[in-house]
């Protein structure tokens, strides 16, 4: 979508702690006590500027729908694409960067990248700000769980949702909660640069949602964690479109292309939800014949072979 932000950050130092205790004699087993159920989240009233943003984004959604945009059909006979188009789109979306690090901050400057993806299971954890009503929490948790199953089936990667500690964090927050999210963000992503944290929590109004994926310096093309920020002020379809785009971008399709159609990896807002074209891009990205760290030039002939197999008789 036009107003989203997708950035992959390499070289982040992640801290891992392990505890090794000396062996001790086994005590008598104690009677287990069932843990007390978690209390229902305490909700707060959204601020006036959050309410104003809700009205603004509701109008944005109405305007886009009135223009025939935010399609949810995944594409059809009006959106054909060839193998050549698919290959070109993959190279632009999967092996180029939309943002470049300049003076410690990420700017909208396209640059050549490398094939990047997750090599470990992706466990999506969702958290909601206290101003997000329970009805939205319940609905969106189910939406993301269904989407995770689809991504896992399509890509072959292990993608799931957890209520415990995840490594792909999706935060649904109001504008006030985003601005106050810095300390929690630093806990979720140990070693995160303070300047990047400030950038993440300073989303201007035109940015609907954002995702940041992280890797270590010694394995810069293999993601180990990610965080996506989704505005709680969005109406249902805009919020769902953010989940679809940001989670897919966080899997490694980190760029957009104006030539991609039918696709959510395009700035024209035509499609709200992942399309068949986009599913094929994910299949290509997670095909093990495409090595991590491959440059655009070296990736192209490999992608051509994979695309031919996936499209079958389609030209």
Can you count the helices?
Answer: 9
Q: Tell me the number of strands.
A: 11
- Tell me the radius of gyration: 21 Å
Kindly name the structural category: alpha/beta
Question: Would you identify the regions where 5 or more consecutive residues have pLDDT less than 50?
Answer: 11-34
Layout of secondary structure:
Blueprint: E1 4-9, H1 48-66, H2 83-94, E2 96-97, E3 100-102, E4 105-107, E5 111-112, E6 117-118, E7 122-128, H3 134-155, E8 159-161, E9 168-173, H4 175-179, H5 182-188, H6 194-200, E10 209-216, E11 219-231, H7 236-250, H8 276-285, H9 296-311
Helix pairs in contact: 2-8, 2-9, 3-7
Summarize the structure in words.
The structure is a single chain. By secondary structure, this protein is an alpha/beta fold. The protein has one domain (4-11, 47-311). 36% of the residues lie in helices and 17% in strands. It is built from 9 helices and 11 strands. The strands form 3 sheets. Strands 1, 6, 7, 8, 9, 10 and 11 form a 7-stranded mixed sheet that branches. A hairpin with a 2-residue loop joins strand 10 (209-216) and strand 11 (219-231). Helix 2 (83-94) crosses helix 8 (276-285). The longest helix has 22 residues, at 134-155. The two termini are 27 Å apart. This is DUF2927 family protein. It comes from Litoreibacter halocynthiae.
Record keyword descriptors for this entry.
single chain, 7-stranded mixed beta sheet, two-stranded antiparallel ribbon, 9 helices, 11 strands, DUF2927 family protein, DUF2927, signal
């Amino acid at each position: 979508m036009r107003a989203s932000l997708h950035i992959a950050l390499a070289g982040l130092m992640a801290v891992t702690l392990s505890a090794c205790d000396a062996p001790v004699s086994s005590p008598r087993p104690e009677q287990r006590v069932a843990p007390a159920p978690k209390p229902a989240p305490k909700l707060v009233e959204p601020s006036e500027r959050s309410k104003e943003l809700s009205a603004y984004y509701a109008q944005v959604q109405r305007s886009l729908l009135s223009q025939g945009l935010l399609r949810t059909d995944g594409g059809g006979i009006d959106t054909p694409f060839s193998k050549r188009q698919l290959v070109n789109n993959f190279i632009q979306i999967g092996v180029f960067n939309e943002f470049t690090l300049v003076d410690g901050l990420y700017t909208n400057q396209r640059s050549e990248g490398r094939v990047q993806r997750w090599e470990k299971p992706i466990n999506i954890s969702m958290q909601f700000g206290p101003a997000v009503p329970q009805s939205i929490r319940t609905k969106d948790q189910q939406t993301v769980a269904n989407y995770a199953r689809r991504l896992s089936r399509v890509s072959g990667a292990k993608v799931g949702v957890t209520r415990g500690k995840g490594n792909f964090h999706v935060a649904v927050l109001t504008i006030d909660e985003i601005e106050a999210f810095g300390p929690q963000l630093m806990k979720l992503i140990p070693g995160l640069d303070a300047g990047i944290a400030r950038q993440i929590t300073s989303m201007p109004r035109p940015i609907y949602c954002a995702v940041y994926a992280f890797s270590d310096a010694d394995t810069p093309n293999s993601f180990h964690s990610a965080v996506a920020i989704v505005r709680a002020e969005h109406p249902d379809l805009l919020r769902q479109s953010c989940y679809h785009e940001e989670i897919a971008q966080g899997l490694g399709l980190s760029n957009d292309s104006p030539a991609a159609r039918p696709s959510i990896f395009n700035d024209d807002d035509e499609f709200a939800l992942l399309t068949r074209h986009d599913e094929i891009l994910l299949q290509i990205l997670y095909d093990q014949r495409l090595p991590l760290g491959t440059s655009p030039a070296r990736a192209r002939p490999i992608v051509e072979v994979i695309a031919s197999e996936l499209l079958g008789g389609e030209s």
